[in-house]
């Protein structure tokens, strides 16, 4: 099968990340497998929208040779989920990849994603996200088992190219069919700029996808690597605890949407196997006099307690609401002349030429 056209969606919300946004786009433009297009979706920030449109749009400074980048306004409610849905709706590739606005992709990122879609059963592929600490090194107390707190691949995920329940949204791709059968990301779960450090919108989507298509294969390929910045504020224990609490809130919303059994299946293994091993490792390091060991063990215990507290509060709140909402209906693109060499034809259900 020919490799699918890869659309890349980058969601942005603040001018504070201007240099990071440009670096993210440049990393996409330097891929060994060229992206079909890059879509920059701006989340309800008119000043950033104007600035990016000027930078990448027709006639603006720096616009020459950058026709592969489109700047869009989030067409839905404020938040990451609606921004991603906006990008999906506007895209024209058979596969849509997502990259965080404060991350850069390695050169073969899209190449590894595209290779996995040779199997028509594959509907989603994620990659490995490596933290880039502002302090240039991991805080000694920060356990690798909790790297999801800073949006990165955490200790406990299996290596290689393996099947998973869900991919991680900041470094992920989906066949277009995934959005056609699910309706897109649910709003009311994921992030809203810096207001709420919530998450799990991709977890909820992947669970619904597997229910709608039981034969679907979802993968993580750890060769598809991005490097994600961790600012100083997120290296602090206060953020660690707040983010763990927010994860509990998010998991409660996911459980409300798809059921606790599906919504917490992976988390049960993580809590009963991965985290106890991490605590034991930390205590062993403390006994051997290695720096940070006791801190890491304590952080794991504190993180679990914060997440459990958030889940309890979120579950209580969710009982009085209708759960997640679906704000943007994701549509297949109109037929284009470059779908095949022989002229236009409608998009297929599998989304690959």
Nutshell version of this structure?
The chain is an alpha/beta fold and 353 residues long.
What is the N-to-C order of secondary-structure elements (H for helix, E for strand)? Answer: EHEHEHEEHEEEHHEHHHH
Low-confidence parts lasting 5 or more residues at pLDDT below 50?
A: 58-65, 323-329, 332-353
What is the CATH H-level superfamily of the domain at 6-235?
Spore Coat Polysaccharide Biosynthesis Protein SpsA, Chain A
Assign an overall shape.
Answer: globular
Classified by CATH, the class of the domain at 6-235 is: Alpha Beta
- The count of β-strands is 9
Radius of gyration: 20 Å
Q: Care to describe what's here?
A:
By secondary structure, the chain is an alpha/beta fold. 39% of the residues lie in helices and 17% in strands. The chain is built from 10 helices and 9 strands. Strands 1, 2, 3, 4, 5, 6, 7, 8 and 9 form a 9-stranded mixed beta sheet that branches. Helix 6 runs parallel beside helix 7 (237-258) and helix 7 (237-258) packs parallel to helix 10. It is globular and about 55 Å long. Residues 58-65, 323-329 and 332-353 have low confidence and may be disordered.
List keywords for this structure.
Spore Coat Polysaccharide Biosynthesis Protein SpsA, Chain A; 353 residues
Please give the structural blueprint:
Layout lengths: L5 E7 L5 H12 L7 E6 L3 H11 L12 E5 L6 H11 L4 E5 L3 E3 L3 H8 L5 E12 L27 E3 L7 E5 H7 L18 H12 L4 E14 L6 H22 L1 H4 L1 H23 L5 H26 L35
């Amino acid at each position: 099968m020919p490799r699918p056209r890869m659309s890349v969606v980058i969601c942005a919300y603040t001018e504070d990340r201007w240099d990071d946004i440009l670096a993210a786009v440049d990393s996409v433009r330097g891929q060994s497998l060229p992206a079909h297009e890059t879509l920059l979706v701006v989340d309800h920030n008119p000043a950033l929208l104007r600035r990016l449109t000027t930078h990448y749009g027709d006639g603006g400074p720096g616009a020459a040779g950058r026709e592969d980048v489109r700047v869009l306004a989030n067409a839905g409610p404020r938040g990451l989920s609606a921004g991603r849905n906006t990008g999906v709706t506007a895209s024209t590739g058979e596969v849509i990849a997502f990259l965080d606005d404060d991350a850069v992709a390695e050169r073969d990122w899209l190449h590894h994603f595209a290779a996995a879609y040779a199997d028509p059963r594959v509907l989603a592929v994620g990659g490995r996200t490596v933290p880039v600490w502002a302090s240039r090194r991991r805080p000694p107390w920060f356990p690798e088992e909790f790297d999801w707190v800073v949006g990165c691949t955490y200790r406990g995920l299996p290596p290689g190219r393996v099947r998973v329940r869900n991919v991680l949204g900041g470094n992920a791709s989906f066949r277009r069919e995934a959005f056609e059968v699910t309706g897109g990301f649910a709003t009311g779960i994921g992030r809203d700029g810096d207001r709420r450090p919530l998450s799990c919108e991709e977890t909820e989507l992947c669970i619904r996808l597997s229910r709608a298509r039981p034969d679907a294969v979802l993968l993580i390929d750890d060769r598809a690597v991005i490097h994600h910045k961790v600012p100083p504020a997120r290296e602090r224990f206060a953020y660690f605890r707040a983010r763990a609490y927010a994860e509990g809130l998010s998991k409660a919303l996911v459980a409300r949407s798809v059921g606790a059994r599906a919504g917490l299946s992976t988390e049960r293994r993580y809590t009963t196997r991965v985290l106890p091993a991490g605590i034991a490792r930390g205590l062993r390091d403390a006994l051997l006099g290695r720096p940070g060991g006791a801190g890491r063990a304590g952080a794991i215990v504190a993180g679990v307690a914060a997440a459990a507290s958030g889940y309890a509060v979120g579950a209580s709140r969710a009982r009085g609401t209708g759960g997640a909402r679906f704000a943007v209906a994701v549509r297949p693109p109109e037929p284009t002349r470059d779908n095949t060499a022989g002229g236009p034809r409608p998009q297929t259900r599998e989304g690959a030429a």
